[in-house]
Design goal:
By secondary structure, this protein is an alpha/beta fold. It is 23% helix and 30% strand. The protein has 5 helices and 10 strands. The chain has helices at 37-46, 48-51, 65-72, 85-98, 138-145, and strands at residues 14-15, 25-26, 55-59, 77-82, 104-108, 124-129, 149-160, 168-169, 172-180, 183-190. An 8-stranded mixed β-sheet has the order 5-4-3-6-7-10-9-8. The protein has a two-stranded antiparallel ribbon with strand order 1-2. Helix 4 links the parallel strand 4 (77-82) and strand 5 (104-108). It is globular and about 45 Å long. The termini are far apart.
Length: 193
């Protein structure tokens, strides 16, 4: 999400895959690449037990589909963070269209620099980040997320399946890696003390 690509804009948007909003179409701005449905299905299958009543942070949110999907599946709240003005506008419209104004908040910000401003909205139980696949700052991003994470929280970072993310960063340790074609998900939790 939130990354530029060379494909034509998606017509019709992307479909939410679960929860009370299952089947609803979310508009996708032309400069965003939404998380594939199978990757979202896998993510929410992994997080199924942790999602109900959780606080979710969706970084590089693009269309906001992950935040909306989390809210649809029972999250107490979700915050979608995106830098691009067109994407922020699209997320705000998607939140209104789905009636999730009281559950999903939208924030414009540059990542990882603006993460500290989100501290009053946390701590977050689940954090999802989908930066551009050529993103150079995974370690600084994870370091900036760590203070926002609940004690037993988890971070999932989507990345190219050809790229390995750091095993340990700023008190977070990678606990799992899943691959889905070109996409990979690396999961992090706080390192045991």
């Amino acid at each position: 999400m939130g990354r530029e690509h060379t494909r034509r804009p998606r017509k019709g948007g992307v479909r939410l895959t679960g929860g009370e909003l299952r089947g609803r179409i979310v508009a996708v701005p032309g400069d965003a690449r939404p998380t594939e449905g199978r990757v979202r299905e896998a993510l929410f299958s992994i997080w199924r037990e942790r999602l109900d009543g959780g606080r979710v942070l969706d970084l590089f949110a693009g269309s906001g589909v992950v935040a909306l999907e989390a809210a649809s599946r029972g999250a107490l709240s979700a915050v979608a963070v995106e830098m691009a003005p067109r994407s922020v506008t699209a997320i705000e419209q998607n939140v209104r269209r789905t009636g999730m104004e009281g559950v999903v908040a939208v924030r414009r910000g540059t990542l990882p620099g603006d993460l500290a401003r989100l501290a009053p909205l946390g701590p977050f139980d689940l954090v999802y980040a989908d930066p551009p696949y050529r993103y150079p700052d995974y370690a600084p991003l994870l370091a900036a997320v760590e203070p926002l994470l609940a004690a037993d929280g988890e971070v999932a970072v989507e990345h190219s399946s050809r790229h390995e993310l750091p095993v340990e960063v700023a008190g977070l340790v990678r606990v799992d890696v899943r691959r889905y074609g070109e996409s990979g998900l690396s999961f992090y939790r706080r390192a045991p003390r």
